[in-house]
Amino acid sequence: MNDCIFCKIADKTIPSMTVYEDKNTLVFMDTAMDVDGHILVIPRVHAKNILDCDEETLSHLMSTVKKISRHLVNSCGYEGVNLLNASGESAGQSVGHFHIHIVPRKKGDNIDAWPHFNGAEHDTKEMFRKLVIK
Ligand code: AMP
């Protein structure tokens, strides 16, 4: 996609701090400066998000997510990771090229990476009946 910033990062039209790359995926530093070590993993082929991503691309993407997560824990002094993704504008997606955020974690780092929900409006059983796959 010509106007996609992450496609441009993938084809090197726009520079990035590339942590890792292979035939199918690219991993680079998120420049938001919101948390130490914030990394983005993207597929090279354009998919907007998980809703239109084909299975093979998804598989490559998650394989790289695992590789980078293991690298952070095995070689960079971290103990765990948070994986974050917004699929769709209503979910908070701001860049329309599928990406997984990785936030490296260690005990006592004082990072609050979990969303703050307002509490459910509907009973869990009611939601279950709506959501169950029949
Ligand atoms: P999301 O809101 O989940 O779509 O996340 C988009 C992320 O892309 C944000 O965390 C931005 O900081 C990040 N971002 C946008 N442009 C760039 C860029 N040129 N290089 C690195 N990160 C970027």
From TrEMBL:
Matching PROSITE patterns, A to Z? HIT_1, HIT_2
Could you say which residues form the signal peptide?
Answer: none
- Name a Pfam family for this protein: HIT
The segment(s) forming the HIT domain are: 5-112
Q: Name one GO biological process term.
A: nucleotide metabolic process
Catalytic site positions = H99
Superkingdom per UniProt: Bacteria
Recorded GO molecular functions are:
catalytic activity
- Sequence motif Histidine triad motif, residues: 97-101
Matching InterPro entries, A to Z? Histidine_triad_CS, Histidine_triad_HIT, HIT-like, HIT-like_sf
Which protein are we looking at? HIT domain-containing protein
